[in-house]
What does this fold into?
Amino acid sequence: MVRLRHGLASDELDPLLALCRDLGYGTRFLDEGRRLLELSGVGDRTHRTRLEDHPDVVEVVDAGDSLELHTRGAGRPDTVVQIGEASFGGGNVAIAAGPCSVEDYERLLHLARGVQDCGVSVLRGGAYKPRTSPYSFQGLGVVGLEMLAAVRAETGIAVVTEVIDPRDVERVTEVADCLQIGTRSATNFPLLTEVGRAGKPVLLKRGFGATVREFLLSAEYVLNAGNEEVVLCERGVRSFDSTTRNILDVGAVAHLASETHLPVIVDPSHAAGRRDLVRPLARAGLVAGADGLIIEVHDDPATALSDGEQAISLEDLRELVLDAEGLVSLDGRQLSLHSGSSSPHASNAKESIQ
Ligand code: PEP
Ligand code: MN
It folds into this structure.
């Protein structure tokens, strides 16, 4: 169902109606003002954007079964994305945690062991950092990737790390269990296509100024390149208010959970920008239906080379994992936990959320 521009004369409608017929649709106006046009017929994945791009179309109100690859479609099961031991989606909830940036080997190893001990089986950490200023720490690059590879080999932890340049996709893919596309790269379409061909799961952040529709179309680039393993990540959008770094869009999380078969996770660290709000936002995300979390953790935030102010401690992560376990059990879901953790799970998770 398509909503048309106001005040179109009958003959002005002809080109659009001809286009609809060419695309194979029957057409019927639903109102006297001829602004609501119903199309019937078998669609094609390219049709929705084709209509949205037409100058006389204000919006596609109801895409029906639009056949875009992210749509849930009748009876389609949730996509479950497996990253190491962690399952995201289809009733499985999982957590990734680690520093914003890879800084040095000893620290990375310590944090990897620490997050595992909290029950987390996916380590996050950027070797390539997309910084707003060219004068900020840009990440250790290849050296950082080597550290991630060494820590992965040493601990068995799965690794999610960002790639910002299509030319680096191959080398990052050799190390990573999951490729992260950051908010600043969400409309780098050649990069999205390249990671779509890489054969590894992709953690796709929402652009900080992207509508939900634009976010889904970014995902569509990865899916259309042949990669079904996409984890959508809501990390907050920019707003007028600087109380928090971004606004966590929990409404979008709830919407995406029903709109798409892909797993949706929340990044409360970049949404809040302050460590004291990471835990409540993580809880809010899970209650809204998120299939997981990605959390920044540091053992000495004062010296962190990026995002120290939003990094929580390993002790706080332990509490957050317990929260998550309790909350997801309330709606019959299950938290994927690292098998060798020493956390007192399950037994006291319920107490921790009361
Ligand atoms: C990050 O995960 O450290 C990061 C840069 O996130 P975002 O792209 O959401 O800002
Ligand atoms: Mn960060």
Notes: The mean pLDDT is 94. The first helix runs from residue 10 to 22. The pocket of manganese (II) ion (ligand 2) is lined by residues 100, 270, 296, 306-307 (CB under 6 Å).
